[in-house]
Design brief:
By secondary structure, the chain is mainly alpha-helical. The protein has a single domain, classed as Four Helix Bundle (Hemerythrin (Met), subunit A). It is built from five helices and no strands. The radius of gyration is 23 Å and the shape is elongated. The chain starts with a helix and ends in a 5-residue tail after the last helix. The protein binds heme C (HEC). Heme C (HEC) binds next to α1, α4 and α5. Heme C (HEC) is lined by residues 36, 39-40, 43-44, 46-47, 50, 74, 81, 99-101, 112, 115-116, 119, 149-150, 153-154, 157-158, 161.
């Protein structure tokens, strides 16, 4: 009988251990889906902000206030961009939903953070020029935002999804 008294807590411990290792695996799968959805939404917001700025510069749509607000959305999003890319959420780790986050992000993490800071700086420059209503300088700043800000990070770190 004595051996049973010893075995019961051990069994309980084993069962608890099993429950504990199982639970994080499930919630982690849910978490990575949410993380991918949220960062793709952030990128979509960047895309529509770029359209707003381009619409003003190329089509005369809206005002410099709209441009400043759109650039502000990008600058703010850029500041938290790396937080949307925790380790273990690359395109090799997460299958559903499909993600275009290349594993090289985590191999060259410092560069990825630097690219986020470049985006923030370029967006802030556009925001300030828009607030100063400096239409003459806005065009070049917008191009720099697209090329150095969005383009250079995508070139290295993003796989375009169909
Ligand atoms: C620091 C790197 C980085 C910067 C800067 C960056 N992106 Fe991205 N972008 C990514 C990565 C990585 C993905 C793939 C994300 C995924 O699928 O999980 C992506 C995906 C996208 C997508 C596709 C989203 C989807 O629904 O699949 C769009 C659109 C996009 N980016 C627009 C932009 C625009 C516009 C800018 C500049 C204003 C920008 N990005 C700046 C890294 C970046």
């Amino acid at each position: 009988m004595k051996s049973w008294h010893v075995a019961a807590p051990v069994m309980a411990g084993l069962l608890l251990g099993a429950a504990l290792t199982f639970a994080p695996a499930v919630s982690q799968a849910e978490d990575s889906a949410t993380i991918v959805h949220e960062r793709q939404q952030l990128m979509k917001d960047f895309g529509s902000a770029m359209k707003t700025i381009g619409g003003y510069l190329q089509g005369g749509i809206g005002t410099t206030d709209d441009v400043a607000a759109a650039a502000g959305v990008i600058a703010e999003g850029a500041a938290s961009l790396p937080d949307h890319f925790p380790a273990g959420t690359s395109m090799d780790d997460v299958m559903d939903p499909k993600t275009g986050a290349k594993p090289v992000i985590w191999e060259q993490w410092d560069q990825f953070v630097t690219d986020s800071q470049t985006l923030e700086a370029r967006a802030t420059a556009v925001q300030e020029l828009a607030m100063a209503m400096d239409d003459a300088a806005l065009g070049d700043a917008f191009q720099a935002l697209g090329n150095d800000g969005c383009g250079s990070c995508h070139k290295t770190f993003r796989e375009k999804l169909e």
